[in-house]
Amino acid sequence: MPETTHHEAWADRAWGALLERTGQTAAEVGPRFPLYADPESGAWKSTSRGSWTGGFWAGLLWLRALASDAPQDRAAAAECIRRLAHWTDQDTATRGLIFWYGTALAAGPGRDGEAAGLREKAARSCLAAYDPERELVPWGAAFGGPRMLARVDAVPGLVPLLAGLAGEGQRAAHGHLTRHLTLSRTEHPPRPAWRAGPENGWTPCAEPAPGWSRTTPWLLLGLADGLHFLTDGLDSRAARGLWEAAGRLTAPRLAPASPLVPPAQEGQPSGPVDTSAAAIEAVALLKLAALARATDRGTEAERLTARARQILHRLCTGHLSARGALTDGCYDAARALAPCHELIWGDFFLAVGLAVLTGRTDPFTT
């Protein structure tokens, strides 16, 4: 178990509410996968196949199962993972999101061997898709559009998924991470998506637009996992490079004026906010804080933990509904799709953040 930081009443209340909401959601969607819910009625928009978000629903079910230790909750979580098996061979880098977050809590000793098997199958399939010249697993064609894209939402999940395969997998994970980090440095704010151009060049994509709320949180999450799962296989220079990237990305977030809940699109303060981006950031910062603490960066760990705690407190006291739903998440501001809704990954990352903050789970279990 990790060191307990702030086991406070607000966090415990929010944790309980989120688990209760998970039970309500499970009863409503049945064998389908929740995507986003109306902020007023709480009714879910769901999908039969899981889309790129299916792993977050499976992860929430596993959080509930590990909290309750009830056989029926474990069975529900295990069944959810099995319903995602068809994604293992789909051409999409979001297999990292699906099979890391969907299996991380299930694949521990004595838990769900089938989940561990699906994770390994997905990891090997992603490794086979790795392009050594471009140094990444391409975004893929499963959701339409050009295949050879570098997108920041292809970083989290995929880095630890690949890193679980020794040798080639570790090298691919490092290449994939550093490719996206390198591209992120070429513009400010970082551009979320790039298309492969001629002679190994990259062309900026218009969507998602620069300033997208989840750009830096996704990068930070993948970077934290890279520092944890890859450091043993990196030389000191490569490890130092990852820590320097972490410093560049976190410095603006630790500034006093940085909003705890960002606008869905930077530069549009009157538009919707995105609580899901804040929840992702909080989890990433808690992971980085644990790493900083373990490497004698105590002051840095305190600052990162304080920021994460402030974010989680704001989410729980300002955006968590009475039914336990994290509202004010923005699915897609450009298309006005679910702009102020409950998002399944927002609920998931808020639950993970609270579990880590209160010592219920280790930062790198999820």
UniProtKB/TrEMBL annotation:
Q: Which domain of life is it from?
A: Bacteria
Where do the segments described as Disordered lie? 182-201
GO BP term, pick one: carbohydrate metabolic process
Q: Return the protein name.
A: Sugar ABC transporter permease
